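Bump. Still looking for Probable formate transporter structure tokens.
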Amino acid sequence: MASSFKSPADTAKACVGIAELKEKASLSNLIVLSFLAGAYIAFGGLLAEVATGGMAAAGYPTGLVKFVFGGVFPVGLMLVVIAGSELFTGNNMYMPLGILEGKASWLGLIRNWVGSWVFNLVGALFVAYFLAYLTGILTADPWAATAVTIAKTKALGGAQFVAAGKTVTSLTWTQVFLRAIGCNWLVCLAVYLAIASDDIIGKIFGIWFPIMAFVTIGFEHVVANMFFIPVGIFIGGVSWSQMFINNMVPATLGNIVGGAIFVACIYWFTYLRGTSKA
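Sorry for the wait, here they are.
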């Protein structure tokens, strides 16, 4: 009987094949698919904020609120992986694997990473402005308060602010960086598990658990933050400079470390090192 999933080594080889395809992709495809990935992750973020709006103020336990938030957010990565698109954080794993196996180039990595980052931002901003802000979905309380609190927590660079009658301290640059490492370690493992499965249900379960885990824990995903923080900016309370300096930079760097080092390099070293020559 044929197996419905790949071994870890075969999964690593499949990821290298995907990296080779990304190396050869046209610029137009990279732009369009990156826009879609940013929008898909933003859909997950929008759903998470709608589902948990007002829960904290209503007295629900913090852990339960985080679990509900994390439990619905994975729909974004399911769309990215199964429907197909170019997500910067997933590419942090694919392209280094391709380079280590000689199937991708450093120029291709830079092109892919820069293109996917920029147009992930465009896609996330589209959803944040047109589908979350202008529609009014997140502009009325309790959703507005939830959205602004999330944005401030991520972008104020360690400053304190008041939310729901309590003083809250936002994340520092170092905290964002370290949380971003943990985030993309789990995100790339989710992608890895999805690639390992050969059926849709297996891919969904492979994605759901690690993504639920990273969101519930409170790790930092740069593309998700391209939605969460701009919503707070549009409603009011956070600036663009705070977003980029205090969050986008450390989250991007941390996500690169988490995906490239803790997944791509480790699995290449474990399963693929020396196999090409053999």
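The first helix runs from residue 8 to 24.

Edit: fixed formatting.
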